[in-house]
C-alpha cells in the first residue's frame, strides 16, 4: 500500500473532529453515572440515547476526521470538495443532541435529529464517492471503503425509519429493524472501516511488512455475509439467518484478530509506547468480549451480553481510537508545522510531541476503569460499576488534555 501525504487536507480541518470527538467521549462516560443496572437493556431509551451519543459523537466523528485524512492519502488523489467537511461535524453534533433528547424525553425530536445526521453522512458519502471516481485502479482497500460506505447509507435509511417509528409517526417492527441497523452501521461501516484501516495504520506504525492479507480478506467477506444474512432475517423473517449472522460475525472477528497477530509478529518496531499498550489492551478487550458473546449464545445471560457490548464499544473501539490519536495527531502536527524545517533547523521527533507521563497515566486509569466496570456489569453491583467509571472518567479527562496539548503545539517551542 502506497502512502503519500501530498493530498492530505490541512490539520485545521480535521482537528475539530478529534477534539469534539474526545469531548463527547467524556460526556458519554459521565452520563453512565446515571444508569440503573437493574433496568440496563439495549431496548431501554436511556441506553439507546447513550449508544447514539457514544457512536455518533465520538466514534463516527473520529472516523470521519481520520477518513478525511486517509482517503486522499490512500487513493493518492485530492478530495473532490474538501471544504464540505466543515459542515459535517456541526450537523453531527446537532443531530446527536436532538436524538439524545428524543430518546430521553421528547420522541418527536428523533426524526429531526436523524435528518441532521442523514444530511451530515450524505455529505460525507457523496464527497467520498466523488473522490473515489477520480481513482483509475480499484484495489482491496478502496473496495472495502466503497462497500463500507454502501452499508453506512443503508444503515442511515433504516435509522430514519426507526426514528419515525419511535416518535410514533409510522409503525414498523422496530425489533428486527434495530438489528439490521446495528449490523449495517456498527459492523457494516465501523467494523469494515476498522479492518481496512488497520492494514494501513498498524504496519505503518509498527513497521511491519511481508505479511499475508488472507485472514483480513476472509474476515471482511465473512462479515459482509453476516450483514447480508441479518438483512434477510430482518425483512423476510427467516430465523435461521439470524443465528447464521451471529456465528459468521464471531468468526469474522476471530479471523481479524488472527490478522492483527500476524502483523504484530512481523513488526520491526518493538518500542512499548502508548500506542502499543493501547493496541494490546484494545485487542485483549476484543478477545474477552468474543468469549462473553460465545458464552451468551449458550446461556443467554443478559449480563454477559451487556458486558460484551461494553468491552467492544469502550474497551476495544475506545482504546483503538485513543491509541491511534496518540500517533495521528502528533504526525499531522509535525507534518504541518515542522516538516518544512527538516534539513534547515533542528526539529523534534514525533515521540517528542507526545506527553509521555500524562499519556501513560491516562492509559493506567482508563484500563483500570474498563476492567472494574466490566466486573460491575457482570456481577450487577452498582458500587463496583460506578467506582470503575470514576477511574475511566479521570483517564478520558487526561486523554482530552493530551489531545488539546498536542493539537496546540507551536513551532517556536521546538524549532531551534
Automatic annotation (TrEMBL):
TM spans (from-to): 12-33, 53-75, 87-106, 112-133, 140-162, 182-207, 219-238, 244-264, 276-298, 310-335, 359-378, 384-400
Record's keyword annotation contains 4Fe-4S: no
Superkingdom of origin organism: Bacteria
Alphabetic keyword roster: Membrane, Transmembrane, Transmembrane helix
Coiled coil: none
Keyword Transmembrane: yes
Protein name, per record: Cytochrome C oxidase subunit I
